[in-house]
Amino acid sequence: MTTKKAVNLEKSLADLETLIEELESGDLPLEKAMKKFEEGIKLTRGCQTALKEAEQKVEILLKSAGGEALEAFDIDDD
């Protein structure tokens, strides 16, 4: 097991949403906006790691159950 604290994905996403709203408001001084941005980057990286770990667990479960391999999921950038 890892020693890092598990990421609560739902809470992190909610926190990111709040940060985005604060940054988009344009009411923050530059220094505070930069700190919020940095915090958002950290939250995003934590979410990406949690999602990757979940994907790996699903893949392992599928393989151990004799299921099909996961297909690549492409996100449309519309």
The CATH topology label is Helix Hairpins
Largest sheet: none
* Number of E-state strands: 0
Q: Tell me, what's the shape?
A: elongated
Distance between the termini: 38 Å
Helix % is 55-70%
Return the average pLDDT rounded to an integer: 83
Structural class: mainly alpha
Order of helices and strands: HH
CATH architectural type: Orthogonal Bundle
Contiguous uncertain segments of 5+ residues = none
In the residues, how many domains can be counted? Answer: 1
CATH class identity: Mainly Alpha
Return Rg in Å. 17 Å
Strand content: under 5%
Q: Total helix count?
A: 2
Word description of this protein:
This protein has two helices and no strands. It is mainly alpha-helical. It has a single domain (9-64), classed as Orthogonal Bundle (Helix Hairpins). Helix 1 packs antiparallel against helix 2. The radius of gyration is 17 Å and the shape is elongated. It starts with 8 loop residues before the first helix and ends in a 14-residue tail after the last helix.
